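Final report, Chapter 2: Outcomes

The project's central promise was a pipeline that accepts a single protein chain and returns its three-dimensional structure in a standardized token representation, suitable for archiving and comparison. That pipeline is now operational. To close this chapter, we reproduce one record exactly as it appears in the project archive, with the input sequence first and the structure output second.
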Amino acid sequence: MIPTEWVEEAQQRIAAHIVCTPLLHDPARGLYIKWENRQVTGSFKARGALNKVLSLQPWERERGIVTASAGNHGQGVALAGSLTHTPVEVFVAENAVLVKVQAIQALGAKIHFVSGGYPEAESAGKQYASETRKTWVSAYNDGQVIAGQGTLALEIAGQMAISADQTWLVPVSGGGLLAGIAVGLQRFASRPRLIGVQAEAAAFMHALYYHGTQAGVPDLPSLADGLTGAVEDDALTIPIIKKYVDDILLVSEDEIAHAVAFAWHTYGEKIEPSGAVGLAAVLSGKVSAASTLVLISGGNIQPDLHTRIISTYRTQA
């Protein structure tokens, strides 16, 4: 397990490089929403990536950094690389979201496109890092990455009183964010009910949580591109989530799209489908809105997709 002290150290380490994102209280619904789509790079991923890279030894950075990403983690690592003058190479799937790939490149990182999906990009990236003796930075299977994501728990606790009668909804794929928040919450005597939410199309962590295996779980195309792909078998996130998380829920593609449109039409916030799954769980009635905090994890959505979604669901928001 990861010590809570790591999360506190991460908060100090990355404070100068991130922003404290807004926390909205919607009293009519009894709902709290943490807008991490307002974070630098447009995603929570900057927290973990910065904490990892800033915690590396100089010789580890001098080798150069390699990672794989659906897009948001790559932006975080690229940002950390630019701050530390470290060369970064990011492996992405050939069908990765263009706006995310362009943002990675704009931050100075080199892109390697890989045939297939995220699992293929991750495998290729790890092999390349091993062969070239460069430093590999996982998107979720790393203690310092997890600790960096956990700073969100401390930040939220500084914005609102947390209690055992609350429910927190957190997007989950590989589990870095959910595990980090679970660890960060351990420093508090009174902790909310913690629930992970992921897309039905790629229910890998859900299967691991309830059945102890992800064998046979399909990895289908999803609007929530950042939540697809199997979890590494030895992932540090798995035992943390099994120990501290209360439930993992699944939401459909239609429910995810509805949540993206709802955020825009109701709050004027542009969010990406991967970041919308917690809100989708509330809007679909899987969780009551009362005393619930929804973590919106990112806002990097392809503009034409966002336009299509908010037009299609305009009357349903």
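Archive annotation: Strands lie at 23-26, 31-35, 65-68, 88-93, 110-114, 135-136, 167-171, 193-199, 247-251, 292-296.
This record, like all others produced under the grant, will remain available to the consortium after the project formally closes.
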